[in-house]
Amino acid sequence: MARGARKKGKVRWSKLYSFSCMRPSVSELEEPHHLEGPGFSRVVMCNEPQLHRKKPLRYPSNYVSTTKYNVITFLPKALFEQFRRVANLYFLLTAVLSITSLSPFKPASVIAPLVFVVGASMVKEAVEDWRRFIQDMKVNARKVSVHKGDGVFGYKSWEKIRVGDVVKVEKDNFFPADLLLLSSNFEDGICYVETMNLDGETNLKVKRCLETTLPLDEDNEFKDFRATVKCEDPNPNLYTFVGNFEFERQVYPLGPDQVLLRDSKLRNTQYIYGVVIFSGHDSKVMQNSTESPSKRSSIEQKMDKIIYFLFSLLLLISLISSIGFAIQLKFDAPNWWYLRPDYTTSDYNPGNPGVSGFYHLVTALMLYGYLIPISLYVSIEVVKILQASFINQDIHMYDEDTGTPAQARTSNLNEELGQVDTILSDKTGTLTCNQMDFIKCSIAGTSYGVVASEVEIAAAKRIAKDLNDQSLNALDIQNFDIKSQGLNASENSFNSPRFQEPDIELRIEGPELTEMTERPAIKGFNFKDDRLMNGNWLKEPHADVLLLFFRILAICHTAIPEQDEEIGTIKYEAESPDEGAFVVAAREFGFEFCKRTQTSVLIKEWDPSSGQNIEREYKLLNLLEFNSTRKRMSVIVKDEDGQIFLLCKGADSVIFDRLGKNGRNYEESTRIHLAQYGDAGLRTLALSYRTITETEYSEWNATFLKAKTTIGADREALLEVASDLIEKDLILVGATAIEDKLQKGVPRCIDKLAQAGLKIWVLTGDKMETAINIGFACSLLRQGMKQICLTLKGIEFGNQDTSTKAAKESIILQITNAYQTISLERNPDAAFALIIEGKALAYALETDLKDQFLQLAILCASVICCRVSPKQKALVTRLVKEGTRKTTLAIGDGANDVGMIQEADIGVGISGVEGMQAVMASDFSIAQFRFLERLLVVHGHWCYKRIAQMICYFFYKNISFGLTLFYFEAYTSFSGQPIYDDWYMLLFNVILTSLPVISLGVFEQDVSSEVCLQFPALYQQGPRNIFFNWYRVLGWLANGVYVSLITFFFNIGIFRDQAFRVGGQTPDMSIVGTTMFTCIIWTANCQIALAISHFTWIQHLFIWGSIGLWYVVLLVYGMISPIISTDAFQILTGVVGPAPMYWFTTIFIVLTSLLPYFTHSAFQRAFKPMDHHIIQEIKFLRKDVKDVKMWFRERAKAKQKTKIGFSARVDAKIRNLKERLHKKRSALSSPDLE
């Protein structure tokens, strides 16, 4: 692009920000940085990337990877993952020993299951990691224009970029690496950058190149370009950068304003040129990420403990067996002539029973291996994969706008979704879509705007219901009025006479009640009130004040107007969405901001005298910007008549303190309106102005210019003093109320999660004020909630040791005071919110303070961390995870959230439009935050209970089966002889009992998804671990021991002393073993039928089909040659089938084995029912249809008492309204004092 084509009319942002950019330029005031010592060794040769491919400047390529494995590491790491499971390690040892003479089984029957289990798990890991690899490849394959030499640029993939490359990035594209900005299409070398993926902020940042590189604005300028950058080494700090730029024998200092970070986006700038200084994993965003961790669910970790217990049991009975064998061998074997005691081997030597006993110990360890369920792992893997597929296919978590379904990127953590205690959430892009709508305003003491907020609507409906339920109409409350055109007759049956009292009136009008999620036709403007629209404001009593109000909206801001060529209108690029909403509102009221120059703003406004729109130019004299300390913004302008005005907007507390004596006419009514807006969940600002004489302005401007040009630590303080000199004696005009547009369904989702007993923390890179406003919008904060703010205001950061000590002492003092405040609170409805900024958090996370900080945070209803870096997000997540020892879930949508997503027990990525870094690092991905409700409350609850019951059942059936082997060995003098055929035992876990338990893990539902959402307190069964605590596990194990005793001893007792057939034939070991195995198969499958709450045809098929399959196996196996089937030849058709005793024994033992579980279940449901038992009975008897009041009463009980969320906010508003009603009623009923 020719230099003459560069945009000359564009505003230089540097001229707008009087606090930051009216300082002298860097090159004029600052010396180059002294870069010495460790941490400042990086040297970049600009436009010479080939020098960085070899030592000593060998830097990594721009290739990035988020996978757990690669081609080389997959086999060793995957095998490690499998064999760190103690059960798999045991079965590996058993498989090795199975090829020896000590094995009681054939080698194939031991090795085959192990290979299948381990192989299936490794294939699953490979598939999941392949998906991550594909996502990485998509990022690495993005294209960017790179200088190839001789001033020629061409496109390369990101992964081929090297340090030193000069790249050209075009509008709306991401930066491929960390770049040093050289030039842009703007004359002054600025560019606008969106850093949502880094710090969560959507407001544009201004970056500015060095003046010396401004001429490098065309491709051919880089033909002979050479320069050297010496800077800090790669580090994770996003907000700092120190370096020097050596160019044309001059050295220039570099700072963060000249650096463009990877994964931020170029906005409102046609192109920029930059040189790569950090690539790939050296870039700051990747430095903030951590290696993909290997996560295991808490249930799986506890399962290992149970397996350790079973190993101990296995070792114990093996020792008993080996000792018993040694004793029998020493004392009884010499008398057993038929066993040839004179023919000895190493494992059978009556003369050396100790050695023989040791060999028998090895045999016993293998024989009783069925106590350890090898198929448990592969069954769980299969179940989790199927559960994940149901999550992926859930139509209720499918986002129609983007066509994005939910995705379980790993199935290892399905059950962990049902045990979450704390959610740590990003803000921007996760909770909000960062859209603000102008909805109400107060001008000259009059409130305008009839659109109701969600809080107002919910409160109105609840008030109506309470009035009906409590029959308050009879109390003749004449002072309460809810104008409710949207409520139906049943809700609005209390038509008491109206008393117009604005302080208790809740106005709700229009169709907003029926569809609150409908977006306004004009983005940023959802205001409805005919008194102000279409020029009707001229008819209002205080039209002059209204005129001032609209002018303040149109002028007091830093927005940039930009012509939208597609639709032919002006759109605004504002620092924040709320500022954009103010400018749009001004335009809709007839005051259109249409042009900004370096020294003026142009407004098209309605002229009452001429009745037409005319252009008015206001000369921009000064701009005093908003920051977290000032909490206000002011502009000083001169109108066409030469009159000077200061226009100011800011927090109401700050503005009210600066009002003059003649500026408080509307203060009282405005305060009332602000309180009402706050109760309605709206963000508010107060608007004011003052006129300034020429003399006063000249004197003040001299003071202000002197403060601006000061160099040193006192500069900011001098500027603040100068601002205070002019921002006084203000005249109040009114106030604004805007609604922060959260993502669809966020308040409802947070409310449900709070009712389910989950704690929610918000971690954001936004400033404290923005984070607090979002907290109010999504009901994490509310009016009346006491805020505890931990900040480092007033701490002078000079000497490092002194400032660190002072900062720590300040944090300790604030935490101590907060503890005392909470402990002294006596109001049971009181709620506290902890809000901490990033600098304070850095000290609070240190070893000696983090426990105190965490304990304080636990006592608060909500926690908001502001201005946090990605690294701090991960550290906070780690603190909560390790400090509470409870399950944490982190959710975010940007690259700045990757660290906390990987650190949390469960990471959830939002698959938004601003990149897929969070999704690639996550365990689960969803398209909208609202889907988290269903993911946890429905799928999490189901998966937890399914996996817990499945594991307990596995241990039960293996105990009931494995102990019969021990009993038989003891019964046969510890001979090491199994009572069952090898093929029976191989098929027991693989086929005959596997499908029913898989159906339990996949299809079981204690309650339906609708009921899960209606009764959120059911979710607490997971965090409290009701279905997988030691009491429950030991109960199942005890049931297994009982079944094994009944099965073995009843069979032995029945068959030992009587004939088996009519002909007098007595049973042998194969008959007893077959009958015993039949009882085990029937009991195991019937037991799972008793445990299932929700039957489908699949469960019936698998349960009864497995029992039928056993008889098919007996039939087919019995038909095989006796060389293979041995004693089982024709055992069904010729032996046990025709014998009534076989069938009688099976029925009798199965019923006896199931009796305790059935009795316990019946007793529990009758006398000590659990929550889901009650709901199941209600649904079965259709009481939810027959008795609706009872159903709603039960639903109300099923909510965890919470102090956050929409319901808590509405409850607080209702308490407030009822108190005011009570006071009004008392005042009306009291006798007239006159």
UniProtKB/TrEMBL annotation:
Q: Where are the transmembrane segments?
A: 86-104, 110-127, 306-327, 358-380, 954-971, 983-1003, 1033-1055, 1075-1094, 1101-1120, 1140-1158
One Pfam family this sequence matches = Cation_ATPase
Its annotated compartments are: Membrane
Query: Where do the P-type ATPase C-terminal domain residues begin and end?
Result: 919-1169
| Membrane topology type | Multi-pass membrane protein
| Record-linked InterPro entries | ATPase_P-typ_cyto_dom_N (IPR023299), ATPase_P-typ_P_site (IPR018303), ATPase_P-typ_TM_dom_sf (IPR023298), ATPase_P-typ_transduc_dom_A_sf (IPR008250), HAD-like_sf (IPR036412), HAD_sf (IPR023214), P-type_ATPase_IV (IPR006539), P-type_ATPase_N (IPR032631)
EC number(s) per entry: 7.6.2.1
Q: Which residues bind ATP?
A: 426-428, 579, 626, 649, 683, 764-766, 867, 873, 896-897
Q: What keywords appear on the UniProt entry?
A: ATP-binding, Magnesium, Membrane, Metal-binding, Nucleotide-binding, Translocase, Transmembrane, Transmembrane helix
Q: Which residues form a coiled coil?
A: none
Entry binding sites for Mg(2+): 426, 428, 893, 897
Superkingdom classification of source: Eukaryota
**Which reactions appear under catalytic activity for this entry?**
ATP + H2O + phospholipidSide 1 = ADP + phosphate + phospholipidSide 2
Q: Which cofactor does it need?
A: Mg(2+)
> Its GO CC terms?
plasma membrane
Q: Which residues form the signal peptide?
A: none
Q: Where is the active site?
A: 426 (4-aspartylphosphate intermediate)
**What CDD domains does this protein map onto?**
P-type_ATPase_APLT_Dnf-like (cd02073)
Q: Could you cite one Gene Ontology molecular function of this protein?
A: ATP hydrolysis activity
Q: Which GO terms describe its biological process?
A: phospholipid translocation
Locate the P-type ATPase N-terminal domain: which residues? Answer: 44-110
NCBIfam families, per database record: ATPase-Plipid, ATPase_P-type
Q: Which family is this protein grouped under?
A: Belongs to the cation transport ATPase (P-type) (TC 3.A.3) family. Type IV subfamily.
Name recorded for this polypeptide: Phospholipid-transporting ATPase
